[in-house]
Amino acid sequence: MEQAYKDYEKGQFQNKSEDFNRLMKQYVSEISPDRKGIITSGLKAVSRNRQDVIKPIDFIATLLEGEVKYQKLPSGKSEYIEFYDKNGEMVATYSNNGWTMYPTKAEVARQTEMCMIYNEAWGNAKKGVPLACGEAIDADCMQSNFDARA
User: Fold this and answer.
1) Contact 104, 91 (CB under 8 A)
2) pLDDT for the residue 85
3) Residues 112-125: pLDDT tens digits?
4) Contact at 8 Å (CB) between 119 and 5?
5) Beta-carbon contacts of residue 135 (< 8 Å; ≥ 6 apart)
6) Closest to 1 measured CA to CA, from 140, 129, 144
């Protein structure tokens, strides 16, 4: 919420704000699968098991809680690899055209959650509604809630 208020003041909404992008990446990464580990293990398995025919690699399912399906066409000119996480969700593919990363259902849900919170806060900032004390990390707010009797 605090980021939305800061971005509203700058006139930068969501992905136009570098701070929003960093916050989103950090927030989503907390539940992201280890793509680097899945891809690294998968590529090692593929290089050990290169075939000239379509062949799924079953043993890779146990490596780093992921799975890889590899396909090399007989012509030897086209390659396609799918990388799966422990839940069976495709997290990446590689083909001669390059890499494609796919978000998991959990990542999409987390992105949506953050956007909903951000959008509501942006709307409040636009309406002039002040950020409530419990919603911000603010020294002034913390001091005003200090109870000397405690």
Assistant:
1) yes
2) 92
3) 999 999 999 999 99
4) no
5) 1, 2, 121
6) 129
